[in-house]
Amino acid sequence: MTYSMISDPLDVKSIETAALELLERGYSVGLDSLYCLILWALARWIPPLVATCTFFRKPSNFTPDVQLSITELAALDMCQERAIFKPMNSEEKELLKQRCGGSWKLVLRYILAGEICCRREKSQAIAGPSHSVAVTSSGSVYSFGSNSSGQLGHGTLEEEWRPRLIRSLQGIRIIQAAAGARRTMLISDAGQVYAFGKESFGEAEHTTEGSNVVTTPQLVKSLKGIYVVQAAIGNFFSAVLSREGRVYTFCWGNDSKLGHRTEPNDLEPHPLLGPLENIPVVQIAAGYCYLLALACQPSGMSVYSVGCGLGGKLGHGSMADEKYPRLIEQFQTLNLQPRVVAAGAWHAAVVGQDGRACTWGWGRYGCLGHGTEESESVPRVVESLGNMKAVHVATGDYTTFVVSDTGDVYSFGYGESSSLGHSSVIDGQGNRNANVLSPKLVTSLKKINERVVQISLTNSVYWNAHTFALTDSDKLYAFGSGDKGQLGAELPAQQTERAMPEQVDINLS
C-alpha cells in the first residue's frame, strides 16, 4: 500500500477520497501509516479529531457512506457509542442531525456538551431545600433529609438522617435528578421521568395549594412520548429537556411568562416557544422564577434566559421580564464560549470553554465575586479568578462556588452561611464571618486531598442551605445546614449545621 492515491497530503478532499476508496475495496481500517497522515491533515478540524482517532482504532461497523467525509463518518461512529443516541431510530437520528445544523460533527458536539455539563452516566449529588438526592454511577438513587411531602420517595413522611436507597426503583437506571421545595424528579436512562413529593409541579414553596403528596416515585404520564434527559425545578415551575434539545415547562405560564398561557398549577408540559423552538439546548438551569438554557448552535455555544428579570438575573442589561427566551448577547462581546450554566435564586453564573467564570444578577452579600455588593445586569468576568481555569460553577441563595481544573474550590457570598465551607468564627457580639466579596479558596476541601469535580448547593430561597462536594473517586462531602438530616448524618444535640466538610457514608461508584 502506498500513498499514490493522495495527490496532495494537505488536500483534505484528496485524502478523504483515497480513504473512502480503501474502505470500499474492503481494507480494514488498521492501516496506521495512511490514517496517521489523515489524522494529521484533519487535526485542525477539532473536535472531530477525537472521533476520528476512535474510528480508526477498530474495524468499521457499518457500510461507508460515500456522501460523507471521513470526519463525518468518524463523528457518526462515535455518536453511535453515546447512551442517548443508541436508542434512536434512523429517522430520529436524521432529525437530530438537521436540528443540530446538518452535520454529524455538530451532533457529536451537542451530545458531548450535554454529557459534560450534566454529568450524564456519572454519579451526582443534589442539594435541595432541606432534602438531598444522590445518584450512583450505576443508576441507583439514595435520598435523605426532610420528608414532609414524601419527597424522599420511600413511601412514608418520615425524615431520614442517613442515605437510604429508594428500593421501588429497582431495575430502573436513573441518570439525573432534580430537587426542589418538597419535590423530587428523576430521569431514567430510557428517557422517562419519575416524580414524587408535592403533586403540583410548580406551586410556590410557602403556599398550601396542592396539598396532595406522592410518597413513592411515579411515572409522569404527561411526558409520554418525550425522551427526557434532564429536569430542573425552580420556584413556581419545573422544566425538562428532551433528547432532541427541546425545552418543556410545567406551570407558571399565565400571562405568557414562559412563552405559553397556562394556569399556575397546570400539570401538562408545554414546549417553550420563541427562539429556542429550532435551536438544540444541552442544559437547563432553573432559579427563582426564571430559566437559563445553554444552547448549541453551529456558530458555537450560547445562553438564553426567560422569566422574571428582578435584580438583572436574566443578563440583558435591565430588570425587565422576558416572556420568551432571549439570547444573552454579552458573551459575544466577551468572546466567551459558555460551557456550563448555573441559576441561583437571584443571580446566575457561567463557566466558559477557556476557563473564565462570569456572574450576574443581584450582588447582595458579594455573591457575584466582584469585590462589592453591587448588582450586574449583564455577565461580568470574575477577574480575581484569572489565575485558574474554571470547569464547574454552582450558585445558591446569595452564594457561589467555582471549581478549577485541578479540583480546587472557591466560594463567595453570604458570610453567615455555613454552606460556604469556611470556618465560622463568632465574635463577642454574636456575629459570624463578614460576607465574602471575592473568591476565597475553600481550604477545608483542600485538606481532604481529593479532586473535587462537582459542587451542588441549595439554590432556592432558603437560609438553611447545605452544600455537597463530589470527588473524582466518588466520595461525597457535605456541610451547611443539617437540621433535617440533609447532610446525611445526625448532628450532635443542639447543633443544626456543620461548617466543615465531612464525608457522607454512601457508595456512589
TrEMBL record:
It comes from the Eukaryota. Coiled coil: none annotated. Pfam families: WD40_RLD. RCC repeats lie at residues 139-190, 191-244, 245-297, 301-354, 355-406, 407-473, 474-509. Signal peptide: none annotated. The keyword Repeat applies. Transmembrane segments: none annotated. Keywords: Repeat. Residues 123-457 form the RCC1-like domain. PANTHER family: REGULATOR OF CHROMOSOME CONDENSATION (PTHR22870), REGULATOR OF CHROMOSOME CONDENSATION (RCC1) FAMILY PROTEIN (PTHR22870:SF24). This is Flavoprotein.
